[in-house]
Write a structure and sequence with these properties.
This protein is an alpha/beta fold and 609 residues long. It folds into 2 domains: 134 residues, Alpha-Beta Plaits, CATH 3.30.70; 406 residues, 3-Layer(aba) Sandwich (Rossmann fold), CATH 3.40.50.200. Helices cover 24% and strands 16% of the residues. It contains 13 helices and 20 strands. The protein has an 8-stranded mixed beta sheet, sandwiched between helices. Strands 1, 2, 3, 4, 5 and 14 form a 6-stranded antiparallel beta sheet that branches. The protein has a two-stranded antiparallel sheet with strand order 6-7.
Length: 609
């Protein structure tokens, strides 16, 4: 894009208004209409005096944008601190749900004092100077997007909050569409959920403890793994009577990249030999899994606090990525798996680390000598993680909603688009935020970011009964994620009661370690309520670390079943666009498309032969 005619005028405007801007940026005051000037756009004749709870959108002038963003930042902080009222649906049983004592937003959105800038570096620099921003470039090299565009992490050196700085860049870019710039907070990411991850996640807003390393109970051996319902006709129809329904060598020309946690050091790991596979033909091997560590900073603010007790959540779900990898491997055992550690052992990471993992995929895992459009041919990227859409959402006509509930994260969207352009298929978990949808017909929440990107295959979690798990958000297609049962304190099944506060309503109970009893654990007669996968952690029986099979539940584990299927399809000769178009059509009629399962539960035998 040629900006040679716009830049001189832009710089002149910057010089003329810099003094006024400096004066206006000292204190966070309410926005006032700026004086008319040759560089400011006159307000519309339809503009009215703003109400106390409203904010007047800026019309393009630097001073007006600066005032708007100061007010936006203040209101955004206030919104983050609000504690949501109990939903009407949660009170339909006649019992009042327990009140939250901690906002699910406050202190758990993004890394303080950091912004991620995307676009043309010279234009980003000009905007920074126009608003007299004090920013320091991160020492790590910027991520190149081609054609001069780049993504760069910046540190805010003054006391301006993240909301204000991102607002300044984005509002100015909105007023000047000839500019190619955008700013994102450096969001916290977690495994498809809030407060450190949807897998595990808060049960009715409370934290559910897992085994060391992750998992909701020990699940037996490799035979139990291969015979689980998720691979059978209640799931993706990979196995029938223990026999594989698709060619064992299919998927050999594909690779699956998993951005997640990892309990293992960098290097090659013999996943197949460690797991064992009773359905594997004698002498048939599979490639080792390669593990890469993208350095992750361990942030004190993540995973955050329990919503009700206000106490800090302490968890170890380091095996989350290994569990995901084992499911993808079971579907496509001949595909090469790359596990990139982009999340800490507690399941938390940040946007910039995710972007660097995607950059590594784009550059180091591409095929040498291939054209750009074919450089990631046969590659599937699995993202069982996301940016949560918070519970204390507000109507979209309030500007701070666009901050608290972003429709997209520009930098992440740009990297996903780059991978798509290189021929990769991106799959993401839809998220586990719909646990408080009480009424069966009530629409679950939409997918998290990046599953909300239309170019990403978003995956719903289905149950043994081929319904949507009550925890699962909406998505394009479904795959087994495990059960979630709607119960209340007055209608719980005998023997499956759980410990809740007096009068509290349990809207979506997921098998797990909810209390001291065995009533609702996966291994207590509820095996078909959970998914089985491979993990590494402390054996509670022996007190020693080791590998074991464990139970878990969540859309995090539905996604790799789709990723493995996509790898089989790519290896059979399909183009990425064909996979995106075809995969939602190859579903089990008994499992969709009704009941918010997207197009339905995928059927491997219909998609890969």
């Amino acid at each position: 894009m040629n900006h040679s005619h716009t830049r001189p005028a832009f710089l002149l405007m910057t010089v003329l208004l810099l003094a006024a801007l400096a004066a206006s940026c000292v204190m966070p005051v309410a926005p006032t209409p700026p004086p008319a000037s040759a560089t400011d756009t006159p307000p519309s004749s339809a503009t009215v005096v703003p109400q106390p709870t409203a904010v007047t959108p800026p019309t393009g002038g630097i001073e007006e944008i600066a005032a708007f963003c100061r007010d936006y930042s203040i209101r955004g902080k206030e919104k983050q601190a609000e504690i949501p009222e109990p939903s009407a649906s949660a009170s339909q049983s006649g019992e009042e749900p327990a009140q939250m004592v901690v906002s699910p937003l406050e202190g758990l959105i993004y890394v303080e004092n950091q912004v991620v800038l995307t676009g043309q570096p010279d234009q980003l620099q000009e905007i920074s100077q126009a608003f007299d921003l004090k920013l320091r470039v991160d020492e790590k090299e910027a991520i190149s997007l081609g054609e001069g565009r780049a993504i760069q992490l910046m540190y805010i050196l003054d006391d301006r909050p993240v909301e204000e700085v991102t607002c300044l860049f984005n509002q100015f870019a909105s007023a000047h569409p000839e500019l190619d710039v955008a700013a994102d907070p450096n969001y916290f990411f977690s495994p498809a959920g809030w407060q450190g991850g949807g897998s595990p996640w808060t049960q009715n807003g409370r934290w559910a403890h897992t085994l060391p390393g992750g998992g909701l109970g020990v699940a037996g051996d490799s035979t139990a793994f291969m015979k689980q319902w998720a691979f059978g006709d209640a799931g993706i129809n990979l196995l029938t009577n223990g026999e594989r329904q698709v060619r064992e060598d299919l998927g050999k020309g594909a690779q699956i990249v998993i951005l997640d946690t990892s309990p293992l050091p960098e290097g090659d790991f013999a996943l197949e030999r460690r797991m064992g596979n009773p359905t594997r033909a004698a002498g048939v091997g599979s490639p080792d899994m390669t593990i890469t560590d993208i350095p992750v900073q361990d942030y004190d603010a993540c995973p955050g606090l329990d919503r009700y007790s206000g106490k800090e959540i302490v968890q170890d779900i380091s095996s989350h990525g290994l569990f995901v990898a084992s499911l993808a491997h079971a579907v496509a055992p001949q595909s090469k798996i790359h596990l990139m550690r982009v999340l800490e052992n507690d399941g938390c990471g940040d946007l910039m680390t995710i972007l660097r993992g995607l950059e590594k995929t784009s550059t180091e895992l591409s095929h040498p000598g291939a054209s750009f459009e074919e450089s990631l041919a046969g590659t599937v990227v699995n993202l069982s993680l996301g940016v949560h859409r918070p519970d204390n959402a507000c109507p979209g006509n309030e500007p701070e909603c666009t901050y608290a509930l972003p429709e997209s994260v520009t930098s992440l969207q740009a990297m996903v688009q780059r991978l798509n352009d290189q021929g990769a298929v991106v799959v993401a978990a839809a998220g586990n935020d719909s646990w408080d949808m009480v009424t069966p017909g009530e629409s679950p929440r939409g997918p998290e970011i990046p599953a909300s990107d239309p170019s990403v295959l978003s995956v719903v979690g289905s149950t043994y009964e081929q319904t949507r798990g009550c925890y699962s958000n909406q998505g394009m297609v479904a795959a087994p994620g495990g059960n979630g049962v709607n119960l209340t304190t007055t209608t719980m099944e005998a023997g499956k009661a759980i410990s809740l506060s007096p009068g509290e309503v349990a809207t979506c109970v997921v098998p797990g370690r909810l209390d001291a009893s065995d009533a609702y654990w996966c291994e207590s007669g509820n095996e078909n309520d959970c998914v089985i996968g491979f993990a590494y952690g402390m054996d509670e029986t022996t007190g020693k670390p080791g590998f074991q099979y464990v139970y878990w539940v969540g859309t995090s584990f539905a996604a790799p079943l789709v990723s493995g299927t996509a790898a089989l399809m790519l290896d059979s000769g399909m183009k990425p666009a064909d996979v995106l178009a075809t995969l939602p059509t190859g579903v089990d009629p008994a499992g969709g498309p009704s009941d918010y399962l997207g197009s339905g539960i995928i059927d491997v035998t219909k998609l890969a032969q």
